[in-house]
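Hi V.,

You were right to ask for the full record rather than a summary. Here it is.
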Amino acid sequence: MKKEQPTRGTPELEIGESKSDAIRYLEHGSPHWRIRWHYHDEYELHLIVASSGRMFIGDYIGNFRPGCLVLTGPRVPHNWVSMSLDGTRYELRDHILHFDHDAIAGAASTLPELRMLLPLLKRARHGIEFLRHGEIAEKYLLQIRESDGAARLGYFCELLDILARSPDQRQLSAIQFNLPEAEDVEEKIDLVIEYVMEHYRHKIPLAQVAAIVGMSEGHFSRFFRKATGNRFREFVNRVRVGKACDLLAQTGMTVTFICHEVGFNNVANFNRRFAQYKQVSPSKYRQLVSQRYTHPEL
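Predicted structure:
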């Protein structure tokens, strides 16, 4: 793998050296150079088989232990940091699969049976944790490791089929849009998102946003919630909290300054919304997020 060095506060870009196989199996212990805050163009199915600690998936921070199974989409930054007080080294900590979107989407275009995997891949853009699937995932990952050709593809498809059908999964990072296929709807939502991303620091009147897409306030509110699954105000708050996460991770700005910088009027409301979406306070988030850059000494 090639690594591009990051600027402060940004993940490293990891570039695969070989694209000869659509499915690539990896494994490593801990410490290891792969244990760092990074991203890449492939999907990654990641199973932890030893140690416990904290995982960082996009803007999500949570705990992991053996059996933790996560699927991340292309360019979703991630890291798993083992918390070992006695410096324990693990010969094998991670089973990993990398695979490409184009290969799966191309196959699905000719094999209808594979199309049911596409919604799973779409959700993976924000990270998915699968609960209670560690044991069966390890079985399939070991079969993939020991096989090649059509047999490897078969095990891979079986595993993704199990995960796609499972109700025991949860999204980890940011928001997910569930847009209808109509082109004009997507264009309207894109206009709204673009406007919010440019003006989130300021008050955003609902009437002003509704006018951008030629709707009344009531019509726009119903339209936006149906198209995205979020109330418009909730979406704006999520954007502001997401921007606050960037500033907390990348700068030394005070929480009060960041509160106003991202468009909240008072610190109490900012703290309340931040805890609602991130389950920790802004100060605690800043404390935790520094751990995602851990690069254990080899």
